Amino acid sequence: MLDVRRLRLLRELSLRGTIVAVADALAFTPSAVSQQLSALEREAGIALLERTGRRVVLTPAGLNLVEHAEAVLARLEQATAELADARQGLAGPLRIGTFPTAARAIVPAALTTLAAHHPGLEPMVSEIDPAGVAHALRAGELDVALVHDYDFVPSPAEPGLASEPLCAEYLCLAALSPETAETTEGASISRWRDAPWITATPGTLCHAMTLRACQAAGFTPRVRHQVDEFATVLALVAAGQGVALVPQLGVAEPVPGVTLTRLPVHRRTRIAFRRGADGHPAVAAITAALRTAVPEELRPGP
User: HSE of 210 in the Cβ direction (CA atoms, 13 Å)?
Assistant: First the structure.
């Protein structure tokens, strides 16, 4: 009989690439991960890994077993959800991941609704960049998370995860020059090709979005500042330090001297969870609460 915990380690190895990365993510030692994977090979009766020096790659049999592991883990999530649904009342911790804008604009109202309907739940919110959500969900560090993607930076399908749409918002070009602003959708960012730019830090989706949006307009932005918090970005724009792309929810309130030009570029937010966990009553409860917290104009259509 194949051990489910070892199947999970094999799946993580296929995604993270090295035994050290798996060990770091799951709080094991590399030696313990290697021992468990060796035990899985003995259970399977066939080589699942090929070791070349320090590198480890999955054999065809190992890759095939990972596909079965995905199905097994999804069914276990479903079984857990059904057992939780059979119990009376919801209680215990609910670990929620979110990016900063949603943490300010959506999550607080959702938690108020959640507390009113399910006072036994203990929501625990952590800020996390969407790029790190998949690993955190698969590792069991989060139960549900808000993620986003952009028109120029679509999110790839993640093994073992599922998601549902929550909201969509347009992006604005934040600039200090009101006399050149356009207020209708369809404005081009190419007019700011010679301006200094303020972007998010490298490695984030927001940073990639700005670079690709500018490249699609025919230029590479001249980056002066790299800042993640949109309130700070807008303050720098107001100080004449450059222009920036800011999502609709990133503008908490008007900033004197800053003009926002609506662009035909959008950010979409989704609720992500482990595949099979959508039927879990706690996941369903926070999903419903998040939907009620989204402003009407940002909700997806039927």
Answer: 28
